[in-house]
Amino acid sequence: MALLAQDGGRIFCKGIAEAGGRRGVMHRHEAEVNRWLPSAIAPRLRWSVEVEDWLLLGFEHVPGRHADLAPGAPDLAKIVPVLGILGAELAACPVQAPLVAEQWARLAAWRRLAKDTPPDLDPWAREHLDELVAEEARAIELVAGDHRVHTDLHSLNILVGEDGARIVDWAWSRRGNPALDTAFLIPRLIAAGHHPDAAECWAEAVLAWRSTPAATRKAFAIAIWGIWQLLERDQSLPHRPALITAARGWALHRIHQHKIGNEQADQGCQPWLVKHD
What we know:
By secondary structure, this protein is of the alpha+beta class. It is built from twelve helices and nine strands. A four-stranded antiparallel β-sheet has the order 1-2-4-3, covered by helices on one side.
């Protein structure tokens, strides 16, 4: 990655070697998708160049920093409008992309964990694997859709500046339910220090999430927990245990809300909605 100066302003350039491989496919996909993204939510792609086995993408430089997701951070209010645009304007992107539902069906995280259970799997999950597998199957149906979703939202892929927030790195964009990006952000907020209630309260400001049924919320929470749990089993990474803990906390919170008949869990959210929606 490099910041380049050229006529007309600065350019953020990212390049990958072995452009003929899988990473090249991903970044060509990002280049294709970019021209369909509203400029209010993503930096514009100015050029792309392939030289020998290198692929270079040059984006407009957007001043900003990675988003702060901690409780009380002012960045949280700036992210909500961007998610609103995602949910409202990305239903008609003609660029083909894999379906999230098909990917989740192939991954079948909880089903795999039930079949080949790690000895260190969370005790609650071990005792409730049948329930988790069933909810995962529902999530695969509920995540279906033709809406463009980012699928990899976290603080490093959200740039915040004086004029608001932008979303970068669309190489993993897929087609699915428009509520999915908010669902992926909720455990990120929990990992940043929010209680599940507070994270969901924040999410209520996003229309695509506010209109999402409680059963779908629960299924998404359980599916995301399973995906990260399986990925950690197959390829351990330093940041993943904290994410798994956060995803587990959200999933158990959703399950508890279902059991007590308080599935929407939106009590106390109105001040945030009035201020930021």
